[in-house]
Amino acid sequence: MAVKILTIKEDILGANEEKARRNRGRLDKHATLTVNVMSSPGAGKTSLILQTINRLKPKTRIAVIEGDVASSLDADKVHQQGVPVIQINTAGGCHLDANMTEKALNNLPLEEIDLLLIENVGNLICPVEFALGEHKKAMLLSVPEGDDKPYKYPLMFTEADVVLVNKIDLLPHLDFNTTAFNQAVTGLNPAVKIFQVSCKTSEGLEAWFLWLEDETKQMKNRQG
Ligand code: MG
């Protein structure tokens, strides 16, 4: 008898897509713009989220879902900013999925949230393969990681709505070629928006904030 092979990955992804669609329906109903923030570990996702809360909180009702393999270090920092936050520990899992996101949504007052930021687990491969129900995907690449990442991890750059190039305050000390990087990214994804930022000095972040405010407004107009 031949060995039976089960294509588990497709089944898992199919079930995830279905649950992600349901999450998306809930978020649409409450006009909660949801952004899935992805990057390698240490690229600056938490710093970006803290800067975003600090700048947009006066006008926008924000909540955060934090995804990490372990600990609540990032959620604790968000909590100190006084916005609702749920920490998901994936217990070894290298990405969030729609099921984990649903459990977090069950614990958030969606009717009171205009903008939901989801910090995915630090990883350039798996997070982009699992839809959560988000409206937009934001990807961070910090310049110490190198300008060759679009060639090595193309799917992440192809699927992103926004690519933020972070830590540009370090550019004078590195061989990162911004022109070559931008060409590689737009070659994969002509519609992508690229923002050059430093979460440390705040340089360039205003364009990101404006984009988020505009998308949040459009979401309200669609639902209203
Ligand atoms: Mg983090």
> What's the overall average pLDDT, rounded?
95
CATH superfamily of the domain at 2-131 and 199-223, by name, is: P-loop containing nucleotide triphosphate hydrolases
Q: Show unreliable segments.
A: none
> In the CATH hierarchy, what is the architecture of the domain at 2-131 and 199-223 at level 2?
3-Layer(aba) Sandwich
Main sheet makeup: 7 strands, parallel
Structural class: alpha/beta
- What would the principal axes of the Cα set say about the shape? globular
Strand content: 15-25%
* Small molecules bound: magnesium ion
Distance between the termini: 60 Å
DSSP helix fraction: 40-55%
CATH class of the domain at 2-131 and 199-223: Alpha Beta
What Rg, in angstroms, do the CA atoms define?
18 Å
**Contiguous helical run count:** 8
Describe this protein's structure.
- The structure is a single chain.
- This protein is an alpha/beta fold.
- The protein has a domain at 2-131 and 199-223: Rossmann fold.
- It has helices at 8-29, 45-56, 73-80, 98-105, 149-152, 154-159, 178-188, 205-223, and strands at 33-38, 62-68, 85-89, 115-119, 136-142, 162-166, 193-196.
- Strands 3-2-4-1-5-6-7 form a seven-stranded parallel β-sheet, with helices on both faces.
- The mean pLDDT is 95.
- Residues 45-46, 74, 119 line the site of magnesium ion.
